Amino acid sequence: MQISQLGRVEYLPTYSAMQAFTEQRYANGATEDQLWICEHPPVYTQGLAGKPEHIYNPGDIPVVQTNRGGQVTYHGPGQVMGYPLMDLKRVGYFVKEYVYRIEEAVIRTLLHFGVTGHRVAGAPGIYVRLDDPAGHAPLPNRPGKDAPTAEPDFTGLGKISALGIKVNRNCTYHGVALNVAMDLEPFQRINPCGYVALQTVDLSTIGFQVSWQDAADVLSHKLATYLAP
What we know:
The protein has 229 residues and is of the alpha+beta class. It has helices spanning 11-25, 88-91, 95-112, 212-226; strands spanning 2-8, 34-39, 43-46, 63-65, 73-75, 79-85, 118-120, 123-129, 157-168, 171-179.
């Protein structure tokens, strides 16, 4: 996997470049998989399942409709974006495992900095316990055969990483966001990922001071490791 750190780049041109890369690789099955690491100026992105009522005060922050899964989220400075551009048929696993591997890479990144990340059944992304972000006690509502089928319970949790992907003809784009040290106020103007009152956090607000570059370096390494065949 070729890793490219792009720095701070506008969202729309990056989205267009991901689409263009994916389109051209259909004609060239030997195209090497890539991982783009970057951050964006403030922007709300809306997924295919997104509902306008979940964005109730965008203000001067642009809203971009996308073709990824999921609902609305916010991207901004201080957040590491990871965009894996992969051929799943070539690496040999399916979409469900792809999502699991991305989440595992985020969990391992957080663990590197002393934070325990958790999965919540029915709610993609990674969460932390607000009262004990370093504690290892498993969540009662973690995924598994006995996981609840009702609406996810976010009591005592903050979302630190959001995931939204697109898979077209076995090729992936869009990806994952890890909140490092952001202005979190824009999350208060939306229902993040379509959930009312879901609290969004970053490493800084839970007491872990990590530079954007350090987080980007570790996340890129973990994604390359856990997404490998």
